[in-house]
Structures are given as C-alpha cells and as structure tokens.
Amino acid sequence: MAKEKKDQTVKDVGPDLDSAATSETVTPEIEPPEHSTGNDGGNVMTDTMPDQEPPATTATEAGLGGDVEAAPTLSPDAVSADVQGGIASWLNNKRVTALWGINQNRNSWVYIVGVGWKKLANNSDSAVVALSMLAASAKLTQTSYNYREEADGMIHETYVW
Fold first, then answer.
1. Is residue 136 pLDDT above 70, yes or no?
2. What is the pLDDT of residue 55?
3. Which helix (H) or strand (E) holds 82?
C-alpha cells in the first residue's frame, strides 16, 4: 500500500521525462556579450568605470535635513598613514547615493556625495562582495559611510553606522 501511494505521488509531481523528449533542437536567440577571458576562464579585470552621474539628491534625501545644502560644510577628519610607500586616509560621515557594477571581475564602484565615483578594492572576490554589500546598506539607509582610501585611489575598508 505504501508503495502505491509513493508511485501516485511521483505521478502527480510532474510529467514523465522520457515522453517529454523531442527531436527538435532549441538554440538561444540572443548572443552573449563579447568579452575577453582570463587564463582562469573568467572575465579580465579592467578599469572600466561609470560614465553617468547619479540623479541629483536633495538635502533631505542625503540625510542632511531640510534647508541645508547637500555639500559638506566641514572638512572631514583625515588620518594619514604610510602604506607601502603611499598614503591612506580616512574619510568620515559621507553618504553613498549610487552603486555601479558591470559584468567584469572585481569592478564595482560607489558614488559618494561631494567626492564622486570611487572604485572598491579589487584584491579579492570576497572583498569586492563585502564592500559592495556595505555600500548598498549605506545607500539604502542613508547612514554615515566612513571609508579608508589608499594611494591607489580605491576604497579598502568601510564602516557603516
């Protein structure tokens, strides 16, 4: 009896796969985008960057209050440190208003009010994903976005409050 019930359940789940096979060949209608591939089969990292400006934000959308200009009125506190012969600096209390990505490995950007487009560190896949998720959270909640920019001009560390 249990076996009959099991067979009944299988028949109700879907069609018989053997009878569904046809001799007709289906081909995709849209070609994949052209791109060069790296030695590992993935897309080659490039320095392609966004070419559009995000929509203008009002002071309220930027989290600054009603009648206040969207531009910062105070200089951010910057802390400098020697990093492999370069300088790293912390920029605090910024706002993220746009994110940009493309179908290339490790190529993700954020738009910071008063600064412009900044590329996220591309030293590992997990770094790009983590920094992108933090930037997305900062954009969604319009909370304070503190980040460390190194001499290469990329964001390597962030804090979102």
1. yes
2. 73
3. strand 80-83
Question: What confidence score (pLDDT) does residue 83 get?
Answer: 41
* Cα 34 to Cα 36: distance, rounded to the nearest angstrom: 7
Q: Could you tell me which residues are beta bridge partners of residue 159?
A: 146
Q: Are 99 and 109 in contact (CB under 8 A)?
A: yes
Distance between CA atoms of residues 132 and 134, nearest Å: 5
Q: Which percentage of the chain shows pLDDT scores above 70? A: 53
What's the predicted TM-score (pTM) here? 0.52
Cβ-contact 107, 46 below 8 angstroms = yes
Distance CA(60)–CA(157), nearest Å, equals: 27
DSSP-assigned beta bridge partners for residue 105: none
